[in-house]
């Protein structure tokens, strides 16, 4: 395993016209590029993850997992705006000499895909055997496959969509309302908005799981309680856990980026954009996902030319893409072993 920083020497122009100087992208690599240079697996991470994919996606990525360093050269880049080593709102603004905070330039998922392309160019990677991502990571991988269709051979999209939904945007806006209600968010200090971020995480969790999950994991063992419920403690714990490892400014801008996701923007339309993808594609939906319902993955599979659809039955809602790694690995393994043209599918409800 190796962690590195790529420092881009030129000024980056974002989709909205804003510019970033001194761009830094933190990234991890695992394994080695083989002589044929055809073993690259590129991971696009989700909202609050880092470039250390072995840490947050075990069971799918690891020494003894489907994607392992013995067989693959695995690359995972920390996305723009994230606080795990890449340029983000707490980085120094070269114009002012102070951290950006809310002056950080707003960016889109399409900009995140551009950063992946810049890093791939820097690493001399012309061909990616597999590009994979779930949730926001899937949005990035999708944009990259549309913008650079000849570079990606196989594409794996999990619990993601072609355009972020009004439902998803409403959840993100509710989280930002919680952050902005914390007056310290506007104080320009690294811990600004921490209480708001804790509340935002509590809101997010409701979209990541669901009624059955909470009913099974947070149900009280007694009928006598009037306060201090398990579910309440769980929300506090998860909120505090995020505050210790993230910051409100990064969260603000990354949720804005997710809201921006629409592959049809500036193109003839969403179906037409999806038609540009040349990669053989596996789209995986999670049966109980409230945030990215399976209809969104079925839409992707029906419009991407060489796509296969699989559906995972999970108790864990959207978080199933991180938890159900055994089932996901089985589905991906079958996809990778298949030769030739995939069956054009929306084999709806291929439940594993």
- Compute the separation of the termini in Å: 32 Å
- What's the number of helices? 12
- What is Rg? 20 Å
CATH class of the largest domain: Alpha Beta
What overall form do the CA principal axes indicate?
Answer: globular
- Helix/strand-derived category reads alpha/beta
Number of strands: 10
- Ranges where pLDDT stays below 50 over 5 or more residues in a row are 340-352
Name given to the CATH homologous superfamily of the largest domain:
Alpha/Beta hydrolase fold, catalytic domain
CATH topology of the largest domain: Rossmann fold
Strand order of the largest sheet: 1-4-6-5-7-8-9-10
How do you describe this structure in short?
It catalyses: L-homoserine + acetyl-CoA = O-acetyl-L-homoserine + CoA. With 352 residues, the protein is α/β, with parallel strands linked by helices.
């Amino acid at each position: 395993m190796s962690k590195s920083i790529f420092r881009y020497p030129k000024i980056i122009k974002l989709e909205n016209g804003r510019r970033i100087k001194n761009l830094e992208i933190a990234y991890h690599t695992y394994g080695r590029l083989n002589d044929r240079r055809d073993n690259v697996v590129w991971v696009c991470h989700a909202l609050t993850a880092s470039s250390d994919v072995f840490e947050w996606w075990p069971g799918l990525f690891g020494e003894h997992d489907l994607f392992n360093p013995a067989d693959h050269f695995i690359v995972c880049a920390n996305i723009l705006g994230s606080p795990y080593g890449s340029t983000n709102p707490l980085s120094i603004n070269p114009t002012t000499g102070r951290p950006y905070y809310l002056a950080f330039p707003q960016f889109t998922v399409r900009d995140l895909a551009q950063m992946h392309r810049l890093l791939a160019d820097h690493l001399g990677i012309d061909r990616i055997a597999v590009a994979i991502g779930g949730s926001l990571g899937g949005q990035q991988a999708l944009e990259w496959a549309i913008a650079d269709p000849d570079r990606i051979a196989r594409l794996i999209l999990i619990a993601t969509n072609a355009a972020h939904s009004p439902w998803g945007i409403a959840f993100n806006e509710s989280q930002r309302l919680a952050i902005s209600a914390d007056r310290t968010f506007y104080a320009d200090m690294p811990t600004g908005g921490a209480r708001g971020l804790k509340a935002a995480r509590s809101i997010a969790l409701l979209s990541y799981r669901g009624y059955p999950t909470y009913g099974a994991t947070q149900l009280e063992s007694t009928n006598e309680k009037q306060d201090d419920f398990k579910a309440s403690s769980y929300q506090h714990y998860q909120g505090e856990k995020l505050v210790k490892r993230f910051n409100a400014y990064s969260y603000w801008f990354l949720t804005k980026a997710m809201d921006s996701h629409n592959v049809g923007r500036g193109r003839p339309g969403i179906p037409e954009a999806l038609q540009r993808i040349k990669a053989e594609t596996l789209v995986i939906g999670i049966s109980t996902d409230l945030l990215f319902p399976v209809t969104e993955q079925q839409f992707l599979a029906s419009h991407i030319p060489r796509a296969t659809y699989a559906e995972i039955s999970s108790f864990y809602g959207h978080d199933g893409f991180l938890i159900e790694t055994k089932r996901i690995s089985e589905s991906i393994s079958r996809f990778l072993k298949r030769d030739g043209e995939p069956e054009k599918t929306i084999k709806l409800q291929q439940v594993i």
